[in-house]
Request: fold
Amino acid sequence: MYSDALTYATNNPNVSNIALTGPYGSGKSSIIKTFLTKYERPFLPISLAAFLPEADGSVTTTEGRHPQRGTVSKQEIERSILQQMLYGADANKLPLSRFKRIQSPGWSSWLISLFIIVGLIACWHLLQNSTEILSGAFFKPRDLTNWFNFVSFSVGFLFLWQLLHYIYVKSLGVSLKSISLQDIEIAPETAAEESILNRHLDEIVYFFQSTKYDLVIIEDLDRFNNPDIFVTLREINSLINANAGVKRQIRFLYALRDNMFVNTDRTKFFEFIIPVIPIINSSNSIDKVIEQGERLSLDKRLDRQFLREVSRYLNDLRLIQNIFNEYAVYVANLETDGENILDANKLLAILIYKNVLPSDFEELHREKGKLADILHRHDNYVANSEISYKDQISELEKNISNAEKQLPTDLDELRKIYAMTLLTKAPSGYTMIEFNGARNEAIQIIGNHQQFDELIETPEILFRSPQGHAQRINIRGLQKEVNSEKTYQERKAELDHKSGESKDAAALAVRDLRAKISTLRTTKFNEIIRSDAKGTQELFEAFGENKELVRFLVFEGFLDDSYYQYTSLFHSGRLSPNDNKYLIQIRSFNNPSPDFQIDNPKEVIAAMREDDFRQPFALNKALVDCMFSDPREYGSHIEKLIAYISSNFSMCGTFFSIYYERGKRVTELTSALTSRWPGFVSAAISSPDSASHIARMIAHLPEKDISSLHQKASGISENIASNLSQIVALGIDFEPSRLALIKFELKDLRSIREYPAIARLIAEEGQYELSVENVEFVFRDVYGLTAIRELQVKHYTTVLRTENPALIDKVQSDFDLYLKNILIQSNTNTEEEVETIIEVINHDEIDGKYLEQFIAKQSAKLPSLDQVPARLHSMMFRHRTMKASWENCLAYLAGENFDPMTLTAYLDHDESLSILSSTAVADQDSALPLRQFLLNNSDFSDSAYRTYIRALPKQFKQFPDGVSLDKLQILIEEKTITFSEASFAFLEGKEDLQVLYVANNIDRYLADKAKFTLDDDFRQKLLISKISDDRKLKIIADMDLTSLASLPDRASVIGQIFHRAGADFDDLSAEVAQALVIHSKPIATQISLFNRYQKALSDEEIWATLNQLPKPFSEIEPGWKQPTIPTTPENLELVEWLESRSIISSSKPALFSDEIRVYNRRKKG
Reply:
């Protein structure tokens, strides 16, 4: 059918441009070949398939002089077309063409070369006889005897004519393109930019004039995605057919894909278009694939499902045929032993990759290219998978940890917490909630779990009263009121995690994830890369339109890191190129990297010398994996390897870092090193990579070996205690319970905050140092307790209240350290409760000085000494930790460790004074020692002494010895000592105290004064003491007043007493009366006494007395003076009796002041 259509088009005079359209691989070339077998006229095939660039098939136009890298310019395409056209014809048929080609000489070349020699000889002969030729002598005689001259002339003329003719013909193809003068070239700009086909259009027309071609077949031109070239070709076709020299119609046949032209544009270029229906596509390619498999008898070895799936990506029959042809060649060469050990599906996948992406396949041989980049990322994919699994483990452990921290024990309790908060929002009297279209009692809804869970998430609630009143309440902030950090649903989820089933499921999930981590290194490449499918997206994008095919082959495991077994003649049981390269390097004493790829380690080990295993060469990942996979067979090699490592451990860091990450036999290696090299643990913990070594030992050693690590190197415990965070941060997954096998105490729990499972294990096992920070971390972050404030101010009390056995056991197991590091060191731990303090101080094993430091910080007071060890009694009183009570003081005083100064200092404190001042000391005989201690204590401050003396219930008979005068005075003032002659005698020599003693006991003295011998001086001191005036008058009665004139101080004292008491002693002598008036103070007292005792005085004695009074009273004397005195009752009485006794003439109030003017007599009467 297609041949008929082409025959019709090539015979139609109206058709010059024919298009055979169809997708790639649809059979266009096959149709053309079939047609040409029947086409009898000459045709010219032009194919551009070999001209496709590797990068892409795009074409640059002539707008730029230099096409971009990886592209083909339009000029290059036109040049290729022109070259295939002109150089495809015989050069002899195009003698005038400017495109010169090498011509092979034919049989006539012998004659031509001979003719040239003869012609040159003839010309030389003619030149030698040029004179004779000009004179005509050369042609004489005109007979046969002159034949040589005639022949020479004829040959020379013919030679010159042929030479000129040749030059003329050749000049027709010469054109001037540029002028060059040394280094300067002048050429037209358009010569480099114009279309090559247009520039050489005359050559093309000449070509068709000189040849018989009438059909030009152009294939693969569409691959350059440039429709402009078709415009040029159509134009050339039109010019050729319009040329008068071309006597036949020239047709161009194009094979191109359907989408080369947009919409109907292609109808403008082609007069006849023949569509080709593809014989193969992605839906039916499976049939062709199976057909090829049957052709080569491969269908039994190939997986039919693989063929079905991969065929969807193959829609080019030629490609499929070539793949299976190559498959047959590869199988024949790779399986020469007939064992068929290669995976036929993988080999087919390799060949599909080779044919679809040949350039990248070539790069793969050099371990470069896009696929090699993916394969080389195997370790990255493994690391990413490890991180992913570890993140999942961390999340599960975090969920369990958060659940353990939840204060509600179950969901019912959690709902009740939120329900109570919700009910507080209800208006008073509103007991019903309208929810989901129904009214229910609030309690009923709260009891319905499903309804409550929905209710708590609503933004507002409609409350109703029994009377039907409604009120909407906004509860958007209710959940934050209960817990500002987590929502109800989050806390509910955490409690779900807290359930036994959930924790078991989480623990099982963690074990499964850890199992996956342990097998990652042995997991197939496709399984590893599929776990990081998103991360590889960009890598597959590099394959362009073939990315889905490559993704399928890689993800399904048909293209993986075993590709080398299918791409070269080396296979299992023989050395690969990498193996050979490794052996070459070690024989040259070059040490390959520990991760150097060895494909057949058993063969390499067999090829190595015994001594090689005592060299760094043996430190190769693949070799170590192989040796430890069969320790019986390679026992001697392993011994030599360990011997080398033990002698050169510091040089093995790179090997360990690589092997720990990528090795498959880490467990066997670490076990061998630990058991066969006693110094391994010590060397490991001393190395810069100690954290990595310890992590692997914990992860891979058997449990019995882990528990004995501290015996092999005591420093491992200290190393783990200091660097556990670094060890865990390496991400080496192991069961946290394995840490419990090692004896260590972590220094800082906060360093493993990001690892809740390990932190909980450390806390449960008590494997941490007792410090304020560590216990707070356990309290808050591990157990989720919130009483941090209480922990800071009453640490031990709060710990005991948790009732957490692990935490309490840790504290009590090393209480001495707990006391020193926490209870004493914490400056805020001052509010321990009494029961806690009693428990602490009853630790007999602890040195008293540390207990004293603890006690000194506490503010609580112990009520009694009953539960306090005797050795601490003084300390308790010294730091005022005992409650102030006379019972405690008496108990301490009666104890064997009593210290007077301690009790004195305790009692002398303001707090004790404040409390005990209001309580009397017991008056029982048992309390006598305490009463005596208080009485006899001269070390009290005076104020404290007075306070405690007042607290004594009864008097003592005698003053204590050795107390100060001030304290004796206190005893007297507080009447602590009974009044007696003996007590008075005790105070002998201390007259002031005696006076005070008598004054304080004046009544008893007055009642029995005959027993006491007192003089007037003593009595005078009594008169100035604080006793009542009536008692003082009784004392004055016992005194001798006749001497008052000579004792002005005594007279003054007695005068004031008389004045205050209003005493009237009629028997006083004038001398005594005058002394009392003159020496008393103040003036008012003097005038009052003067008025009272003036009758006992004569006029002269009155004048004398007035004279000794202060002014203005001393101015009352005979003369002209008229003194004024203040107007007072005493002064009014004075001037009245002075006037009555004619001491003054008269008196009257002053005119302008509140005074009395006294008019003296001119002279005495």
